Amino acid sequence: MWKLLLLIFIQTCNAMPMIILQSNQEELKSLSQIIRSDLKSSKANYHAGKLQLLLKSKENWGYLQCRLRSETNDILIERTFKFNSNNAKWAAHGCSDMVLSGLTGKSGSFSGRVAWVTVKQGQYQVEQSDKNLTAPIPLFSSAKPIVSLAWTPDAKSIYYIKQLSKDSYDIKRFDRISNTHHLVHHSKTPLNDLVWDASKSQLIFTKSVHGMQKLFKIENDLAKQLTFGKSIDVAPTVSNGKIVFVSDQNKTPMLFKYHSSGVKSYLPLEGDAMAMPMMYHHQLYWYDAKNGQIKVFDAIKKDTETFLSQSNVQALSPTPFGLLVAADNHLMLVNFDGEIIIRKPIQVNLLSSSWMDVT
């Protein structure tokens, strides 16, 4: 007679803790492989330890118990992740984050989420996936166009812009946990370029003012204009608490940095073919449509290099694991060495990820 608890030992490589499955379930084996892959990809210098995994279910909910023990069998951390069938892989990623933090003291980033928009039978469907871009899950759909997305860092909410008509736009917040939508801002002129400023917990976007796009932020539930004048200001991105954006105030598109004092400083980088600038820590990525290349500017080294030769790029989004690139009806994850490590046949023209620069 089989015992109720079968101990299955999975010895990973020397740089990782031993994983022990305390129940013999195919789903638990699958979740343990996600955890193993996460920890391996982190390339962290782990101390020896043991990770005990137990999977239970009750009333349509799953419970992944993760117990991290030291070499001397002391319990370092113990946590149970509750999930429904669609979110099992994030329970595994959450466990990976726990292990990384418990054994190295570093914050994990495996449980972040990616979102994109696909058009199916006239419906604009917002879908989510994990860093592996596997098995997308619908979040919500709309009969009206969704033109911009922005996750919050905790991935519990995603902001989006819905174009109701030529002269009517809404910014809404979708709460993933409660599955509810909330109106944030209504506009009678075009809105675009949503980005969440994690350092100040505020939403940045662009809004047409007298026919020219300007930077705005939501402050105390009210829209406040940030940039003025006769220039067109677009494509904001945030790094280290500073808003970086593209402006044509010098007659050609250039990068500017917005400070809380309202002073704008010019960044020593320009390009008339620059599109989709995305800053992550000290590196700025953008698409050079004219030459079919994704460029990267290193603010510390003060130099620009070709990151990836790729035509027909539709969207970019940085992650701790590399750059997400939507191009040629595929969605790719490109590591920081410029190597494509994941490539999926997913056609999207909008991207947002919950991993962002929160320094």
Quick recap:
The chain is mostly beta strands and 359 residues long. Helices cover 9% and strands 53% of the residues.
Summarize the structure in words:
The protein is mostly beta strands. Helices cover 9% and strands 53% of the residues. It has helices spanning 26-42, 88-104, and strands at 8-10, 18-21, 50-58, 61-69, 75-83, 114-120, 123-129, 137-142, 146-151, 157-165, 168-175, 180-187, 191-197, 202-209, 212-219, 222-225, 233-239, 242-247, 254-258, 264-270, 274-280, 283-288, 293-298, 303-309, 313-319, 322-327, 330-334, 340-344, 351-353. The strands form 7 sheets. The chain has a 5-stranded mixed beta sheet, covered by helices on one side. A 4-stranded antiparallel beta sheet has the order 8-7-6-29, with no helix packed on it. The chain has a 4-stranded antiparallel beta sheet with strand order 9-10-11-12, with no helix packed on it. Helix 1 packs across helix 2 (88-104). The longest helix is centred in the N-terminal third of the chain and has 17 residues, at 26-42. The chain is globular, with a radius of gyration of 22 Å. The relative contact order is 0.09.
